[in-house]
Task: structure prediction
Amino acid sequence: MRKLIESTLVSLDGVIEAPERWAGFDDEATAYSTEELGNYDAFVMGRVTYEKFFANWGHITGNPYIDLISTMPKHVASRSLTKLAWNATVLGPDPSTAILRLKEQPGKDLIKYGTSRFDDTLVRDHLIDEFRFWIMPIAVGSGQRLFQDVDTSGLHLRLTEHRRLGNGSMILTYAPN
Result:
């Protein structure tokens, strides 16, 4: 069975909003993230993430990382979108059941970038198999925080892996108990 992995860039003070403004990726971090992306064959994302990613990356070619993302199927949770581009489809009226079906299909694991309101559903329904927090050595000050607007009262995690990068970032992998 495939797993759903959520990977989120987080500042030292818990901010996840607009990481393109503050998350530093050197050659090592870029190589590692590209290598990691090869472990997945589809994205799961909410509407806001889809719209932002498509606007920023949907028309870029020639970057190995973005080219890989562009070719991957994207499964989007949305109540309002009906037409999608960029190899994307809507999960439908019951995204939890749709994700369960995706997890039952053969293939590589599924990836979700960022923590969003959609996580309230994913956490409630125990659909995320691993959380990867890329802790960046910077305090951002303000912005959306990790798990903001998500009921985490039933979420209990155990550290399963950690990796330190040369730029001072830590990648912490947690699995639900």
